[in-house]
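Exercise 7. Predict the joint structure of the components listed below.
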Amino acid sequence: MVFEARRLRKVYHTGEVEVIALHGVDLELNAGELVCLLGASGSGKSTLLNILGGLDVPSSGELRYKGWPLANSDEKALTLFRRNCVGFVFQFYNLIPSLTARENVALITDISRDPMKPEEALDMVGLAARMDHFPSQLSGGEQQRVAIARAIAKRPEVLLCDEPTGALDVTTGITVLEAVERINRELGTLTVVITHNAVMAEMADRVLHLSDGRIVSSHRNAQRLPASQLKW
Amino acid sequence: MIHPLDRKLLRDLGRMKGQVLAVCLVMACGLAMMIMTRSLILTLETARSLYYQEHAMADVFTRLKRAPLAVAERVADLPGVATVEPRVVVDVTLDLPGVSEPATGQIVSLPQDGGEQKLNRVFLRSGRFPRADERREVVLGEAFALENKMRIGDQLVAVINGRRETLRVCGIGLSPEFVFEARAGETLPDHKRFSVMWMNYRALAVAYDMDGAFNDLCLDLAPGAAAAPVIASIDRLLETYGGGGAHTRRDQASAQRLDDELKVLRALSFAYPLVFMSVAAFMVNAVLSRIVRLQREQIAQLKALGYSSRQVGVHYLKFVLVIGVIGTLIGGVGGRFLGEHLVGMYTMFFKFPELSFRMDRSALALSLAVSMGASVLGVLTVVWQAVKLPPAEAMRPEPPADFKPSFFERMGLTRFFSPAFRMALRNIERRPWQAVFTCCGLSLATGLMVLPGAMSDSIDYLLTFQWNSQQRQDVAVFLTDPTSTRGLHDLEHLPGVIRAEPIRSVAARLKYGHRQRKLAITGIPAGADLNRLLNGSDEPILLPTEGMVMSEKLAEVLGVRVGDELRVEVLEGKRPFVDVPVRGLVTDYAGVAAYMDIEALRRMLKEGDTVNGAYIALDHVKWDDFMRELKDTPQAAVVMVKRDQLAAFRETTGQSIGIIRKLYFVLATIVAFGVVYNSSRIALSERSRELATLRVVGFRLAEVRGVLVGELALLVCIALPIGLMFGRGLALLIMKSFSTETVRLPILISPASYAIAVMVVLVAAISSFALVSRMLSQLDLVGVLKARD
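Solution:
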């Protein structure tokens, strides 16, 4: 088991308003799984992903990563956790515009314990030929694939993707999902994907529905549909 | 009712209050300097014109040997002359109780029979004028009275024409002709050792065998009359009476000193604020460019809602207008505060009946105009870019910034650079103007920081040069009249004299082309070792057997170069006209002087071995004995004690430059801090997405800090040497503006001053970085990353 969460709660205080983003979530995520988080805006899926990725800490409850308690970790420990164990992909690619694709990936491989070569990571997402291009010279899909290469170059245990295709058209979106799928399959990385798009759930092992800060349903697909066959 | 757009403006400004404050403060520094200097100019000019007018400052002055009073009436009859005041003016030695060194005084006669002065009327601070029949009563100069704590009724001993006389103080006063109260030829006031006094004509005239005669004359010109023809006729008329050549108020010592000060202030009121305003313009540009980039979508929405380009433009211009107004307000208050405090400094030098600070309101309006001008100029292109953007295009997020490998990488140096350094280089290359502006701001701040150190170095050097290298005597003594070399022997035989070198000085008018200058030519022996003549490299200049050597400044005033021939009109004795070549230039920093070999001067005057003074080196053990005997030497009219002059310099000029230096230091620190803070704050805001990404992928805070600081650190490194060079230039400019006939500051900047400038800028940079780093640690990582660009 990679993640184990018990009674996970997250409360935000904005001014005098108290917003409960997570309402006592219990969850287990295993190595090699591809999990899809579905839910409307404000359902708590991003909060959950951020807590899993060490970008945020829960207000109460327990969270363990491979038996190691994450919930009460300090900033330093969380940085180390992100550096060594987690890869992130966001809707907006967040590449460093002043660095080429290869350099963006190298940014991570320089600080990781056992990274792959930047070229290898870019090859995995099908960008071997565009390695020396700057973000401004790449299409949206290509930029997102660089972001994925950057996330997996450190060989993370976990890949967390927050709406990775949100800003892309269908064809480009599918190329990006193919890359995610390939990473999951070839590297055995636990992959969690947030999406609004129910069609994408068909490529997952497991689909979790969130609503109002709770996991309201969970079902396992009998068979994963390859990303290339998705249509929306 | 505030328009919603203005509400937005206020809230936007509120959100960036740190930066707004930084820009406003830098702007305020420049404006405060401008308002302060212009107000001081107004203060001094108003006080001067009021004083000159109410106390009838004369237009023309002249000294002569002796002329009967009837001659004054003939002068009064000359065309162009309105009022004439003949007087007796003498130099005396004063013996102050409890002070070993003799002080000197200048006694000016008051009109006969207790009549009222027509010109240069004394302003009585307290007491009264001497009674008509009183022989020993004097009105004492206020500066001397204050410095020596003398009050009405006190007594002092003066050696009047060889006789020790006890004088009683009946009044304390000041006069428009002694606003700057110093001995003739002295560039700095020494209120402890020099006093001007006023005494009844008869008492003074009788003592000097001048009864029914005068030796000094001042006059007022008739309205519209030109000075030059009047001066020519007076000189002709007084020639037979030993006339020393008349001059206008412009060449009168006190008036000239005041003019010099105003000249310095005028230069400062322009050059220094200009630098500040340039920095402020750079900063405003940087801040507004950032706002416009961040508010790209808001601009589009405003336009989509139907706001015109003009309205949008005006909205963004209002940002700078608000900054300009706040800057001007702070600058106005600061300028007033500084001005009120600095007026106190001027009372050390200039004595007016009243010198109260007057705020130059026009300076406030001018400041507002200048600050607005600088800000608007700084942001015009930015605002233009904002308004010309079509709404549809602006609604879309800005395309990813276009980057390419930097110049150094294209040169194949990539492998030497870390990713952070590469990012810094490419960022700089992509927005070169932003980098240039930041660099300019930093360079200007560094340059400003060099100035206070340079001033300090300059004063230190001046003190060493003037009082150690050049003047190696302890005392200079001037005699009442020229005597044979016996006079020198008498001085040599005073107790404690180690060495005495003769002086023969003579009043003369030096003419070259249409320029002329009246001063004393000093004759000293060719190998003189006490008062040495030095060139710019501190090497002694040997006086030529023929010809003249003069101060570089005097050569500049007359427009002569080495090799040119001057026309010298001697204003004493046989009054010969002689052509004398200029053989060399002397580097000196106080006053102006012309020197000749004493033998050559005597030949020019067609006289024997005359002397009228000596430079003396003393055995300090016998200091008091020497001074005691000197006080009893009636021929010694003026005694200048070097250590007293040095103390006076430290108390007056040294102190005032010290105040200005501290002020410059504080202002430069504000600028340095403001510029770096502003730049790092902008970098943080513009690169927050990049920095957040790095944090998310696992970079430690310190590593991300390195990326943020890297670019700025690089700019600081580039800016520092440029700033030091600029500082040198600025110091050169400002010190040149200090260069008057009275005092000149040598341009000399020690490595320590450069080092201090570098250190202060680095400290400002490091503290700004620390502040911004704190903000960086509070960055909302998720929020930034999920936001659209």
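Discussion. The longest strand of chain B covers residues 497-512.
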